[in-house]
Amino acid sequence: MENNFAINTENLSKSYNNKIAVSNLSLKVNYGKIYGLLGPNGAGKTTTIQILNCIIKPDSGKAQIHGFDIMSQSDNVKKNTGYLPETPALYEKLTPEEYLEFIGELYFIPKIVLKKRIIDLLELFDLDNRKDDLIGNYSKGMKQKVNICAALIPDPPIIFLDEPTSNLDPASAKIIKDLFKSLILNAQKTIFLCTHLLDVAKELCDRIGIINNGCLLIEGTPKEIVDSGNYLNLEDAYLNILDISHNKDLLKWRS
User: Fold this and answer.
1) Residue 22: φ, ψ to 5°
2) pLDDT of residue 250
3) Does 3.40.50.150 match the CATH number of domain 7-80+158-254?
4) Distance between CA 164 and CA 103 in Å, rounded?
5) Hey, where are the domains in the chain?
6) pLDDT digits 0-9 by tens, 146-205
7) What is the largest CA-CA distance in the chain?
C-alpha cells in the first residue's frame, strides 16, 4: 500500500451475524484535508471509523493510518489519532479539568504541556467558568464540548469525528466548525468526519464519500458529486444517490 496518504484503505469489509456492515471499502485521504463520510443511520459510517481506530478488526482488507497498519501497528495508529465517538462515555463524577488530565496522562503528555492545553481548550469552548463543576451536571451540548476537547488533547495529526456537532446549539456548532477549519489551515491536521448533516459536510469537507449498506456509492468534492448527475445541490444529489441505491436493493430482494 502507498503510505503517503493520511488514511488509505483497500477492500475493507466487516459483517455482523452475516449482515454486511462495510463492504470492500477503498478510499484515500490526503494530509491536511477534511474528508466527510455521509450516509443514513446504519449505513456503515460508525463501523468504518471504529475499524480505522483499531477498536474492531475488519474481516478482510487492509488499511494504513499515518503510514501505520491497523492490524500489526495498532499502538502507533492510536498514538497518532484523536477519536470522538458518536456516543462517548464520560466520567461524570469528574470535573472537565480532571477528565482531560486523565486523558492526557493516557497519552503520556508532559504535565506542563498538558496543563496549558487544558486551559486553552476549556477557554476556547467557553467551559473555563464551569471547570470546577462535575461533568454530570453539564448539559448535553457542554458534554459534547468536553468530548471534543478529549479528542484534541493529544494534539494528533489525524482526527476522527463521529457526528461532532450533535447536541450542539448553533453558536457552539459554529465554534466547532471554525475550529476544524483552523486546524486544517494553521495546524496541518487531517480530519475524517462522519455525519448525516449535509450543511456541515458542504461547508467543511474537501472531499465527500456517500455510503449506504456498507458500500461506498460515490466519492468526490461536493461540486463533483452535484455535477455527477446534474443535481440541483448536494441535498438533491444525496437523496437521489441513496434512492437509487435503495431501489437496487429492493430489486435484488424481489428477485
Assistant:
1) -140, 135
2) 37
3) no
4) 18
5) 7-80+158-254, 91-155
6) 998 999 999 999 999 998 887 778 888 888 888 888 888 888 899 999 988 888 899 999
7) 64
Rounded to whole angstroms, the Cα distance separating 162 from 20 reads 20
pTM of the entire predicted model = 0.88
Taking each helix axis from N to C end, the angle separating 111-124 and 96-106, rounded to the nearest 10 degrees, works out to 140
> Coil, strand, or helix at residue 31?
coil
CA distance 177 to 88: 19
Residues 18-51 pLDDT 10s: 899 999 999 999 999 999 999 988 899 999 999 9
Looking at the DSSP assignment, which residues form a beta bridge with residue 24? Answer: none
Q: Collapse the DSSP code of 21 into the 3-class scheme (helix H, G, I; strand E, B; otherwise coil) and give the result.
A: strand
User: To the nearest whole number, what is the mean pLDDT of the chain?
Assistant: 90
- d(C-alpha 114, C-alpha 68), whole Å: 25
Choose among 40, 58, 137, 59: nearest CA to 96: 137
| Cell numbers representing residue 104 in the block | 492526557
Residue whose C-alpha cell reads 435503495 in the numeric block: 246
> Which pLDDT belongs to residue 195?
87
